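To: structure desk
From: M.T.
Subject: fold request, one chain
Message: Could you run this one when you get a chance? Sequence is below, nothing fancy, just the single chain.
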Amino acid sequence: MRDSGGRVITLTGGEPTLHEDLPRMISKARELGLIVEIATNGLVCGQDDQYATRLKKSGLARAWLQFDTLDPETHRLMRGHDHIATKMKAAKNLIKSGIRLGFVVTVTRYNCHQLGEVIDYALSLVPGFQFIVFQVAAPGGRFLLPREAMVDKETS
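Reply: Done. Structure tokens follow.
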């Protein structure tokens, strides 16, 4: 990959932090000269205060944390559970470990009026917080939200 011009690898999933060899995979990618980042739901990093430090020591540069809302009911509607406190703890653990943090926010009709709150929370984490991406929800995989939850130009 590096020889063909690739410089960054993003480990996704499922959930990459559930793989027992993730730190070793990160170390190996770093040995190959790659910048390593993960896309995560943050649950492991929020439940284990030392896990983010372990990932940083392995060479992890950036984490993209799934973070759609600060409202527990909206989170339950979108994700089937309320892990907001765990995700907030993950954000703090990742930043504390020195990993650059970004949010990936999936936008639906359920949370589009709450995006300002997510941005305000992200800004409260600066300078450790550095990136935010908004993506419109699209059906696929395990995605189970009803069509009326979608935001698109035809229905907005």
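Reply (cont.): Residues 45 and 109 are 28 Å apart (CA to CA). Let me know if you need anything else for the meeting.
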